[in-house]
Design a protein that fits this description.
three-stranded antiparallel beta sheet; alpha/beta; 16% strand; binds flavin mononucleotide; 37% helix; single chain
Length: 347
């Protein structure tokens, strides 16, 4: 790792977490972050929704809420990058501080509350970039909206022409009431409206769910997604649970917990989701991924693609290359010639 990067990392880790994130985005915009120059091993290539990606490791939503750096993040070696959540109107989000490192636990708690520059800003950036790589767009609703479903429809319709896939995020814990949209009738109504709105620009449509979903919740979500032929589910968002093992003083902060303490919970819910989906559509496994072994566990639990965010805070950009190297070694060890062969093998 370059000396300058280690120095920058040292300084960033001492700043307030949100300030550090803002500086990271600026560094990425300025081209100051190294690119992954090596080609990905052939075994990591995955075909999903008719597209072939060179690897299954993705950047989760929330890192690049305003579509400022999708290409820089693809350059770090991610096989896919998800921007958002995008809401129709710009909004401030919750008061700061609202993002906390739980260093001892290698976790993060956030209660950002969909802070973002809004639909028009994201649309302008996405429509100005050359179409390259695999960039998903995650959409949400404004806090003060009187018709939240209409917010998803507005964002989805406008952004579909610039997205390789769309995600309805109905699982942020930081917008009061949003998770109610995961209920059977509400979700079916929302997804039908979004499907109708993007019918002229059809792109794969996914739903992002909470890792706090109960078995009954999963029955409902999967039934709706299967009925409506939704194209995938992301499992999942941050959790409102606080595992008893947490050590950090910040563990009592309100918000969603992510990073290492989320790995087991989110992988268990992924596995339960996969059992219900029966390979009708692909799943994305998100939550706590910080190594090739973590990514492999998600794949074996039923994920075709894997995403991460929080562990980048602790490991820096070289994490992406390391995960890919470790994952390809694990595939070789277990005599899989491709990611596809390993998907769901623990089910
Ligand atoms: C600071 C922060 C902001 C986030 N914002 C969003 C968001 O806007 N939309 C969304 O769908 N998920 C958001 N997430 C959730 C992540 O996409 C991911 O699902 C979750 O953090 C678990 O993955 P991780 O443990 O690798 O971070 C956010 C997470 C963090 C830490």
């Amino acid at each position: 790792m370059a000396v300058w990067y280690r120095a920058a990392d040292f300084l960033l880790s001492r700043l307030d977490a949100e300030t550090a994130h803002g500086l990271t985005i600026r560094a990425l915009k300025g081209g100051l972050v190294p690119r992954d120059q090596r080609p990905d091993p052939a075994s990591l290539s995955v075909t999903v929704w008719g597209r072939t990606l060179s690897n299954p490791i993705g950047l989760a939503a929330g890192f690049d809420k305003n579509a400022e750096v999708p290409d820089a993040m693809l350059g770090l070696g991610f096989g896919l990058v998800e921007i958002g959540s995008v809401t129709p109107k710009p909004q401030e989000g919750n008061p700061r501080p609202r993002l906390f490192r739980l260093g001892e636990d290698r976790g993060v708690i956030n209660r950002m509350g969909f802070n973002g520059a809004g639909l028009n800003a994201a649309l302008a950036r996405l429509s100005a970039r050359p179409r390259q790589g695999f960039v998903g767009v995650n959409v949400g609703a404004n806090k003060d909206s009187i018709n939240r479903k209409a917010d998803y429809v507005t964002c989805a319709a406008a952004l579909a022409p610039h997205a390789d896939y769309l995600v309805c995020n109905v699982s942020s814990p930081n917008t009061p009431g949003l998770r109610n949209l995961q209920g059977r009738l509400q979700l079916a109504d929302l997804l039908k409206q979004v499907q109708d709105a993007i019918a002229v620009n059809p792109v794969p449509l996914l739903v992002k769910i909470a890792p706090d979903a109960t078995d009954d919740d999963l029955d409902d979500v999967v039934a709706v997604c299967r009925d409506l032929r939704v194209n995938g589910i992301i499992v999942g968002n941050t959790t409102v649970e606080r595992p008893a093992s947490l050590q950090s003083a910040r563990r009592t902060e309100t918000g969603g917990l992510s990073g290492a303490p989320l790995m087991t919970l989110s992988t268990d819910v992924l596995r339960k989701t996969a059992r219900r989906v029966e390979r009708q559509f692909p799943l994305i496994g998100t939550g706590g991924v910080g190594s090739g072994a973590d990514a492999y566990a998600k794949i074996r639990a039923g994920a075709t693609l894997v995403q991460l965010y929080s562990m980048l805070v602790y490991e820096g950009p070289s994490l992406v290359r390391r995960i890919k190297d470790e994952l390809s070694e694990l595939l070789v060890r277990d005599r899989f010639t491709s990611v596809a062969e390993a998907v769901g093998t623990d089910l």
